[in-house]
Sequence to fold (392 residues):
Amino acid sequence: MDIGKTPQEKERLILLSILCLCVGIVSADILIPLGFVIWILYLVPLLMSVWLRHRYAPFIIAWLLTLTILLGSLISGSARANPSDLPDRAVFILMLAIVSLLVWEIKTGYTSLEAEVAERRTAQEHLEVLARSLEERVTLRTRELSEVNEVLNRDIAERRRVEAALAMANQKLTLLSQITRHDISNRVFALLVELDALKDIAGDGPVTRHLEILEKTSLAIQDQIAFTRDYQEIGSQIPVWHPVAAIIREAARHLDHGTTEISVDLDRLEIFADPMIGKVFYNLIQNALRHGGTVTRIAFSYHLSDAALVIVCEDNGVGIPADEKQHIFTKGFGRDSGLGLFLIREILSITGISIKETGTGGTGARFEMTVPPGDYRIGNPASGIPPGNGRA
Fold:
């Protein structure tokens, strides 16, 4: 029911209605003394007090009705004519008190319900606003993501085209390099054969010295060709786990080390490295045999340094002079091709392994290769041996 334009007008109209009802009921009580039949109508204004804003409105209206009932008894004189009238009115007044308490409970619950409904309505409106805002944002972000996705798809497609072109070009260059190396190797081999024949013909004459120089130059060309082949293979395959001891023994087996002892104290150690790692240990052993002078022992071992692992290769040869330590890994530095140690550094750097020379000149060379954490393990997990600090 909608009465009044404002809460104040609504309350005034309800009060006026209650007063009019009270006057009408009193009049009926005076003129037509029917007792409870008339008094029961007093419950109507009491129930109407639920709509009043005052918290204790039911009790106030109950007091007003009590006075009205007593006033009706006095004016009508029914108390003198009927001795039971006052007790009946007292019982009804008690009933009004009980009903007013119930009405107050109803009003309190109604007020709380109205407040809760209003709060829920406000929350619902707020949620609707948030939902609309969220929907707009989702739509906007979806559109932005779609645009970004289209750009990424174009970039990916373009990148794939470029990668395919580069792969094709690299394949052609690799094939060209292989053919060129093969042809040059054949020519150099033929040249070495002819030089060897000429040396037999020349005997010990002055021409022999020049033939030996040509032979040495041809062998250097062969070394350069071998280096280009090895360098091209660096990084061409994904790194894998390698048992270090087995690789070193395999490298030593391909070298003529005579009576030189090669000690390998690296059992169960594995490192995560480029498949060319065998060339690293091959070149280290070869370097010691070639340039170590009177080398009688080459030893490989390892130790932990903080979280990293250090693989040590040391010999008892002449060592490396202090002024050359900073240059030995530079391409072209050295007495021969100057490519062996340079190739070692390049292969190790693929997986972040560093190398340095820490020996003392005159007492032997000492190379230390530092393997970063996660790229080594001591004991193969697949064999049931407890692993060390290794990559998962």
